[in-house]
Amino acid sequence: MLPSFLTILGVAATTVLAHNCPVADTSIVAHLGTPTGKIEAHNGYNMYITKPEMEMNTTKAVLYLTDVFGIQLTQNKLLADSFARAGFLVVAPDLFNGTPAPGDINVPGFNTTTFLNTHGPKQTDPIVAAGIAYIRSLGITKIGATGYCYGGRYAFRAGGNLTSIPTGQGVNAVFAAHPSMLTDEEIKAIQGPASVAAAETDAMMPAARRTEITSLLQGTGKEYSFAVYGGTSHGFGVRVNVTDPRQKFAKEEAFLQAARWFTVWL
Ligand SMILES: *[C@@H]1O[C@H](CO)[C@@H](O)[C@H](O)[C@H]1NC(C)=O
Ligand SMILES: *[C@@H]1O[C@H](CO)[C@@H](O)[C@H](O)[C@H]1NC(C)=O
Ligand SMILES: *[C@@H]1O[C@H](CO)[C@@H](O)[C@H](O)[C@H]1NC(C)=O
Ligand SMILES: *[C@@H]1O[C@H](CO)[C@@H](O)[C@H](O)[C@H]1NC(C)=O
């Protein structure tokens, strides 16, 4: 029993070597360090822009829509940089005009209700549209939107037909990690492939809602996927305890879910 088991392992190892297969190569995902992109103003808004090394040959872009902590949060910039290392031009508009939510939203003086009321679709859709318009001005027409928490909803809106963005001028594929406040209408309005990564523990997307979203995605008739990551809570796509192997795995896997989604469906 033991020798044959080892033989099987040996054969498997040789096969991997022969194909140099990078199974779960997560080296492009940065958890720590210094962001490599820069802030530029376009179409009236600041945007964090990060480019792949082979910039000349870039034909696909990622519109990165942040959580309430904005492009000011280092982890958001680092994750945007990770998409650039995967080969995409990345544009992350400043969704909160320089004043995102504080790192700890429970600090006195910060009113979440007021913040969300003053950053609804009326305020945010035009900023998202400005990011898409900037990407299109570079001649890039294959655009995926990736959104986290707050931004997840706007990724769906960017890929749907509920905004003033003309049909065909939005984004072509959508990924959202633990989207908050995502409505049924926004899912039904989607015009292309859509993928969702969900946390196991998320008051804004409990198990019953996950089931509803999966069935709404199926109802769109478009390509879709929905993944739940064990051992995670809301926010894991961006902010995790990287010394916890389950959380680190989930963040990396959700990134790869998005990067593969855009590589294949854009
Ligand atoms: C860009 O693509 C062309 C054609 O596929 C290739 O010959 C060239 O080496 C690429 N350049 C870079 C910088 O990757
Ligand atoms: C937050 O603002 C809303 C109105 O925007 C108000 O009704 C509510 O009482 C405020 N909450 C706190 C804790 O101040
Ligand atoms: C928006 O898209 C949905 C789904 O493709 C479709 O049923 C609906 O008619 C569209 N609405 C408009 C205004 O184009
Ligand atoms: C991070 O995860 C490690 C390993 O599970 C744990 O020991 C540590 O207490 C966690 N840190 C925080 C701040 O939760």
Automatic annotation (TrEMBL):
Residues 48-263 form the Dienelactone hydrolase domain. Residues 1-18 form the signal peptide. It holds the Pfam family DLH. Keywords: Signal. Transmembrane segments: none annotated. This is Dienelactone hydrolase domain-containing protein. The lineage of its organism: Eukaryota, Fungi, Dikarya, Ascomycota, Pezizomycotina.
